[in-house]
Fold:
Amino acid sequence: MENGQTESDPKDLLFEKHVNYVTNHGNDKNDFEYTMTEFLRMSGIYWGTTCLDIMGELDKLDKLSIIGFIKKCQCIKSGGISACEEHDPHLLYTLSAIQILCTYNALDEIDVASVGKYVQSLQQPDGSFFGDKWGEIDTRFSFCAVAILALTNQMDLIDVDKAVEFVLSCGNVDGGFGSKPNAESHAGLIYCCVGFLSITHNLHRLETEKLAWWLCERQLKSGGLNGRPEKLPDVCYSWWVLSSLTIMGRSHWISGEKLKEFILSCQDTETGGFSDRPGNLPDIFHTLFGIGALSLLGYPNLKKINPTFCMPEEIVEKLYKVQIMDS
Amino acid sequence: MNTADISENEVFCEKVISELNKVISDPHASVQSFEIISVPFKQNKSPVRLVDHHLGIESWCLKYVYQHAHKYIINQRKLNRYPLTIVKYLNCAILINPDVATFWNVRRQLVEKVQLSLTQEFQFSHLVLSKKPKSSEAFFYRRWLYSFQSGEAIDWAVEISLCERCAERKNSNYHAWNHRQWVLQKAPNLLSYEIIKTEKFIRKNIADYSAYHHRHFVLTKLFDLQYFDIHDTNLNELYQFINCGQPDDKKINNVDDLALYLLPNVSVPSSPRQSINTVKLNSFYYFLNLIVHDLRMINTLTELHGKYEAFSCYRRIITKSAVDICRLTNSSNYMMTEQFIKNTSTKVAHDGIAQSVIVDILIKQLDMSDEHNVKFAELFL
Structure:
């Protein structure tokens, strides 16, 4: 079988193993790996909490210490949130922090108004967003900006119309989207753009058929999905492609059964957790996106996940109404 | 570890960090690349190695050295100060872990205070890219550094070469190709050279779709800029493409017939020759000739290497752009001079009056026994 899949690959979700994998992740704080990944710690915590919440095991993590950590990461000067103490704030980690706080129903633990001002300060005249004060532009940051503002109910702080124009200007003739105008179409960035349009209720501006077709072309013989032509399948694209298709009401355009098989074959049967491809080492990032995609596919005993925010539906429902197209 | 071990470890780390720094800053060493050498256990010599301008560090010491450099930088941040000695720790930490934006940001602050020179920083980010050719932080840092230089003083071709090397070392290198587009935005005069460069690259890296995407960007951008090569008006590929399978008496072999053939709406008697914008016309021919050239290239590559997804994706997308541009040039005032448009109240041509035959030929060269092409044509053409 291609891509390292074998007959002995697991056919069911190793529920308990994954719970243990996520719960024990990062327990050894003196670990070299722990220091090396410090720069994305906040996102790591978001991947872990969301994953456990979808599996109904959120109480395995220590809520108070996580909230305490987030509070320490908010920058007093800018209002933005960093990945870790003594690191610089960035939209990427600000969104992760907000998502965790929403999961814990604890938004009032931080200064949400100054988070809003931070996001507002990063919008540019053409509608795009800097990721932080140093000025890099990317459609990922547009997604982060509106996601943060939607979850904290402060959307009126930015020029939404301009923001939409910028995102649409990153569309390509193949129907996909890239990180900037003219940048190659990429499934991860398509998720950001489709998610952005779902949050801003502008899905009708998409060329849905073309984009959905491009996304379908990402499914390979193994059932797995890649993010661009000629690339290998990767569990995280299971999430990005499938969530985009779900938002556009076209998830039935790919084979869910084959995708499920591929995702399940990426489980680590010893340690728990998912890797990018069968046989590789697992990590927390791919574990969330594996579980998230299985939830979208309706796998039993998983909470329903919201395709736009990648958070449990029951939490998003209380906070914001996203736009989803009918299938 | 007991206290003696800790201090021994610190002495060791300080030594390695200083040694790395000495090599990097030594103009005579002129280090070109950095690598981590896989050596699992401690050897009885320095883990820093320099061979012919190539710098390496043995993997076994990374965890000690990185933790040490990391601790120093974080402690300075806690004290909210950046002594110049922080640079050697930053060099070490970033070379080992180029993804840490905060460490790059410290460098930015030092550049702003003129404590680090631009030349030094270009060299350092170059070194990082030799280790990690897809480092988005390194590319982003270079764009930021360029904002301090005036446009005329920059040799952008050097930056294109850097992108090319990074793309060669890492397949589908999204950040390298994006950076290249950014350079071309700054230096559009380099766009025409990309025609030859990207073809060479594609022939060498046939499955790298990012390169095809970039070439498509270059071709359509050149058309938008109304570019054509005064010294190369050879349209043989285009004639060959159009005449393929035609009887001799129907073959086209001069520019007048070509205009009639490609632009039936524009070449009507009511629009005399002088009313046509010749720059746009030449650029249209030039573009179409390149598209046809690429379609032939894809055929050749398929014969040589068999089927590749990149081939079919590229064929589809250039077909789409060519069809769009043929329709555009043939169906509106696009080809007319401004003078002519001003003097005529009605459009010369309207959509659908005379569909250019070239559009049909372009669509027909897609293999319709392939269901992907059928679906593509239905959605896009």
Summary: The mean pLDDT of chain B is 93.
